UniProtKB/TrEMBL annotation:
This is HTH lysR-type domain-containing protein. PROSITE patterns: HTH_LYSR. Keywords: DNA-binding, Transcription, Transcription regulation. SUPFAM superfamilies: Periplasmic binding protein-like II, Winged helix' DNA-binding domain. InterPro entries: LysR-type_TF, LysR_HTH_N, LysR_subst-bd, WH-like_DNA-bd_sf, WH_DNA-bd_sf, YidZ_PBP2. It comes from OCS116 cluster bacterium. One of its GO terms (molecular function) is DNA-binding transcription factor activity.
Length: 303
């Protein structure tokens, strides 16, 4: 039996619903779909009448989905996936994309990804807008499912099993310190490593499990004296203090490339780890998302 709530809705209204949900903005949704805000407002009004619900409510900052809209978004995305699948043999043209991508990226990956990704977007999809954020402990699973976030780029420590994942590259840990640090003039012994003043970064706290596990197996525990929010401050802190930083080798090479820091191998074996891209299986056939994933693979896999 036809559903009276959906039988007269147009495809464009489903796309508008999805864009408002993901962008939390009527103006932003209208811009992404290349329609006027007045037209978007009229379509939203029709959807509200059709479903007997406000669907999206204005706040001081943005538009929040109602409980009904939150329950609808999964079905709306499935409908759009099916519709898009009818023309999946058509060539995908990034140049015509006018969408907004939000990507959750581990802090230590951003300096490698952002410049080259922006360059690629400017060349291949100049009308695409990009927002970046740091991932939560739950790997932004809800936002991946409802489409607010397109991809999460992070190490798989505790990622939910229902997320689809694809490995980008593997890395290992090294120690970073200033070149004239007293520990850089001799082989780094485990006791000296443990006794040193350690610097850490918020994004490394989950990864540090591997380090602590190795130290515990040797009967040691290190002392983290300072935790900073991002890697931006790390180089200056290391240059002007006796702190040492245990971090991924790729990030260490980037920080040491300016000439003032030394990379020192750890005095114990620590398990290596891999970075992955995560997305919800609902979007496995979304051509825009898979195109974005491919660019990330190209950029981060090339280092």
């Amino acid at each position: 039996m036809p559903n009276k709530n959906t039988d007269i809705l147009r495809i464009g209204q489903f796309r508008l619903f999805k864009e408002i949900y993901e962008q939390a903005s009527l103006q932003g949704a209208a811009s992404s779909l290349n329609i006027t805000q007045s037209s978007a407002s009229k379509q939203l009004k029709l959807m509200r009448e059709q479903f007997g619900d406000d669907l999206f409510v204005r706040t001081s900052a943005d538009m929040k989905p109602t409980e009904k809209a939150t329950k609808m978004i999964g079905n709306v995305q499935n409908i759009l996936n099916e519709i898009d699948g009818l023309s999946e043999n058509d060539a995908f043209e990034p140049a015509f994309l006018t969408t907004h991508f939000t990507v959750s990226v581990a802090d230590e990956l951003q300096c490698f990804l952002i410049p080259k990704l922006m360059e690629r977007l400017a060349e291949e999809a100049p009308n695409v807008r990009l927002s970046l954020c740091l991932h939560d402990k739950d790997y932004d699973a809800k936002q991946l499912e409802d489409g607010h976030i397109k991809l999460v780029l992070a190490v798989n420590c505790t990622a939910p099993e229902h997320l689809t994942q694809s490995r980008i590259y593997s890395d290992d840990f090294v120690c970073l310190m200033r070149k004239d640090h007293h520990l850089n003039h001799q082989k780094l012994e485990l006791q000296n490593y443990v006794d040193a003043d350690h610097l850490s970064v918020v994004s490394l706290m989950e990864l540090s499990f591997y380090i602590e596990k190795s130290l515990t197996s040797h009967g040691f525990k290190r002392r983290i004296k300072l935790i900073i929010p991002t890697f931006i401050q790390a180089e200056n802190i290391l240059l002007y203090s006796d702190h040492i930083l245990t971090c991924p080798r790729r990030m260490a090479k980037q920080l040491a490339s300016h000439g003032g820091l030394a990379i020192v191998e750890l005095p114990m074996q620590v398990q290596s780890f891999s970075y992955f891209q995560f997305w919800h299986q609902r979007y496995n056939k979304d051509p825009a998302r898979m195109w974005l994933k491919g660019m990330v693979d190209d950029i981060l896999g090339a280092y």
